[in-house]
TrEMBL record:
Gene3D superfamilies: 3.30.450.180, lambda repressor-like DNA-binding domains. This is Helix-turn-helix transcriptional regulator. SUPFAM superfamilies: lambda repressor-like DNA-binding domains. Residues 13-84 form the HTH cro/C1-type domain. Pfam families: HTH_31, MLTR_LBD. SMART domains: HTH_XRE. CDD domains: HTH_XRE. InterPro entries: Cro/C1-type_HTH (IPR001387), Lambda_DNA-bd_dom_sf (IPR010982), MLTR_LBD (IPR041413).
């Protein structure tokens, strides 16, 4: 079942979503005398078919709940599919990834990434750390090994890496970065006590303090397919379609694949991959 930390996160998540709803959203008459926004605990409890005391304890992280009860609460709070999966993970109904052969999986997948010569591809572990990538990824987004190991994480690259952020217009960067964060938040709910997650949040707070409101929110979501336009250093704009794949042998890992939208886009990626190293500008060491 869930750990104490996960139970606290579950309570915070439910409180945050309860605060987003108004009585009329759930079929109750509107009232004017409310000291705080959102539904009252007793309203959620009544609509979910549980006692107010029990629901209060659930938000306080003092009790565990069955899947059926959590799904009932989720319906009352109007949680979508991604948010409901996050609740279930926090409650311990989704087992964390427990692969004991992650290194061999990573090694086996490197040839797969390399088989996409003009499609930037990267393998992320369960914490979104970059563990393998192909030459096209390095050419378009920058060489991951050029930054320190504690920063070699997709969250950090999206939030704080000047080269990646500079390659994307704000209209593409912000929704993609937010989607990455929301997906990470849902994934992190399976392993709330992982020290790597805590260390990553500390690093982000130091390197991207202007985005601190992102780290403290409780939104979750899926990293869905989309088309982005990148303009890497020394290239004309490249349109690419983002897809995400999960390896069967290690389903907590994730492969991100950016497929060029057309022949011209593929040719531009190829030109970046094949240009001399001295012109690539990899001296982007971050200590």
């Amino acid at each position: 079942m869930s750990t104490p930390a996960a139970s606290q996160d579950l309570g915070a998540f439910l409180r945050a979503h309860r605060a987003l709803l108004k009585p009329e959203d759930v079929g109750l008459p509107p009232t004017t005398r409310r000291r705080t926004p959102g539904l009252r605990r007793e309203e959620v409890a009544s609509l979910s078919g549980v006692s107010i005391a029990w629901y209060t304890w659930l938000e306080q992280g003092r009790v565990t709940a069955s899947r059926q009860v959590l799904e009932s609460v989720g319906r009352v709070l109007r949680l979508d599919d991604a948010e409901m999966r996050h609740v279930l993970r926090l409650a311990g109904y989704y087992e964390p990834e427990a692969s004991t052969a992650r290194g061999s999986v990573n090694g086996a997948l490197q040839p797969v990434l390399d088989s996409w010569p003009v499609s930037p591809a990267v393998l992320l572990d369960r914490n979104f750390d970059l563990v393998a990538w192909n030459a096209a990824w390095s050419a378009v987004w920058g060489e991951p090994s050029a930054v320190s190991a504690d920063r070699r994480n997709l969250m950090w690259f999206m939030a704080a890496d000047e080269r990646l952020r500079g390659a994307l217009p704000d209209t593409d960067w912000e929704p993609l970065a937010m989607s990455v964060f929301q997906h990470f938040r849902a994934q992190a709910g399976m392993i709330p006590s992982d020290e790597r997650i805590a260390a990553l949040y500390r690093r982000l707070a130091t390197d991207a303090p202007e985005l601190s409101h992102w780290w403290s929110c409780h939104s979750v979501g899926e990293l869905t397919s989309r088309v982005v336009t990148a303009t890497p250093v020394g290239s004309e704009p490249i349109r690419m379609s983002l897809s995400s794949l999960r390896p069967v042998d290690d389903p907590a890992s994730l492969i991100l694949l950016f497929t060029p939208a057309g022949q011209d886009d593929g040719a531009r990626v190829s030109a970046l991959v094949n240009r001399p190293l001295r012109s690539v500008g990899l001296a982007r060491k971050v200590g």
